[in-house]
Specification:
alpha+beta, 27% helix, disordered C terminus, globular, proteasome binding, proteasome, Proteasome_assmbl_chp_1, chaperone, three-stranded mixed sheet, 3 strands
Length: 137
């Protein structure tokens, strides 16, 4: 529905998503993988360099990130999905820090004023969010 209200011409989509490291398929043990880590998946039309290695087969993406990426592929919209594999259950600063290399990408660079302040701002946002998530403890 969101795309129905947007002009597709000149549109470029970046999708950020997280999932458990246990969902990552590899020959090596997932215990030896540095967690969190990023993998990318992109549409054919996305021509910019990605900020991390591409997602290897037989790994899959599911749910809303997969739907958005599929929509972009069908409608020939340049799009990239950055999937963060993490061993944390809740969104925390360590997981969010894994996305930090994306701040230098062409599409996100204009949104960032000062990368050095990003960690401090993230910690403040997460602390505020934690307060709202702990209603009955």
């Amino acid at each position: 529905q969101v795309f129905g209200h947007m002009q597709k011409e000149g549109l470029e989509v970046t999708i950020l998503s997280t999932c458990p490291v246990a969902d990552y398929k590899t020959q090596e043990s997932t215990l030896t993988l540095p967690s969190p880590f990023l993998k990318a998946l992109k549409t054919k039309e996305f021509k910019e360099p990605v900020c991390c290695p591409l997602l290897e087969q037989p790994n899959i993406v599911r749910d809303l990130p997969a739907a958005v990426l599929s929509y972009c592929q069908v409608w020939q919209i340049p799009a990239v999905l950055y999937q963060c594999y993490t061993d944390g259950i809740k969104l925390d600063t360590v997981t969010i820090e894994a996305f930090k290399p994306l701040l230098s990408s062409k599409i996100l660079k204009s949104l960032v004023k000062d990368v050095s302040e990003s960690t401090k701002i993230l910690k403040k946002l997460l602390k505020t969010n934690e307060t709202h998530n702990n209603i009955y403890i």
